Every structure is written in structure tokens, then in C-alpha cells.
From TrEMBL:
Keyword Repeat: no
GO BP annotations listed: response to arsenic-containing substance
SMART domains cross-referenced by the UniProt entry: LMWPc (SM00226)
Phosphotyrosine protein phosphatase I domain mapped to chain residues: 17-148
Pfam families xref list: LMWPc
Keywords, sorted A to Z: Arsenical resistance
Protein name according to UniProt: Protein-tyrosine phosphatase, low molecular weight
Amino acid sequence: MSDADRAAPEVDPVDAVRVAFVCVQNAGRSQMATAFAERERDRRGLEDRVKILTGGTHPADHVHDVVVRVMDEEGFDLSDRTPREISTEELETCDFVATMGCSTLELDTSGGLDVRDWALDDPDGEGEDGARAIRDEIEERVVALFDEVEAEIDGT
């Protein structure tokens, strides 16, 4: 065992901060948010401390083409991602849930679940310029959310 392994306490996945990004189809905004969140988690060295989930209430068959293109410009390959369904029960195990402005989910927040509706436009049907603007706003919101998540982990 290396010194680095001894210095970093192993985190039980149950203790990980769980963050979810949700929209109806899980084919646009929530996929962009998930990609930015994965990058932000890795940049901050929180791989063992933060679990990221994504899904939709009525998932599409594939990620929207315009989303794949504008995320590719930022170095993300979303072409192999598949939208998935996410349940209310799964979301209620999270610490933070960000909906993209299209959800009618009713979640029990009595256990401390922090739900945020980001009220973002849908990039599907937008041109690339519109999708880029949505992408950039999502990136800013994800970075700000990770500032909060990291502060919670650090206890500050």
C-alpha cells in the first residue's frame, strides 16, 4: 500500500454525495450536465466522494444530434450514451437533484434532498448557436453546484 493510499480514507459508496441530473427524455440537457459533472468531479479529485446519476421520466432512443455535436466541440463524446429511465425512488436516494425545467416530478424532500429546477430551454430543435448557449449555461451551473458539493464534503 502506498503512502497516497494510506492518506486518502476509503469512502463507503453509501457515504458518497449523490447528484442527479434529470429531464424528460434524458437526451439533451441532462446528458450535457452529466458530462460536465463527471469532468468537474474528476478535476476536483472527488471520484470516490461523488456519485453522478442521470435519467429521464420518458427516455428517448438516443442523445439529440445537436447535443452530440456541440458537446464534441468541448471534448465530450456523447455519441455512445444511451438515455435511461430514472425512478422517483432512485432520485430520493440523492443529495442533490437538478431538473432541467421540464419535470413534473414530485419528490419527498423531507430527508434533506435538495431539488433545483434549472428552467433551461430544450436544445432539441435549436440550431447549434442556441444549443451552445444552453450548453454554456449548463456548464456554469454544474461548476457552481460542485462548489456547493465540495463545500459539503469538506464540511465548510
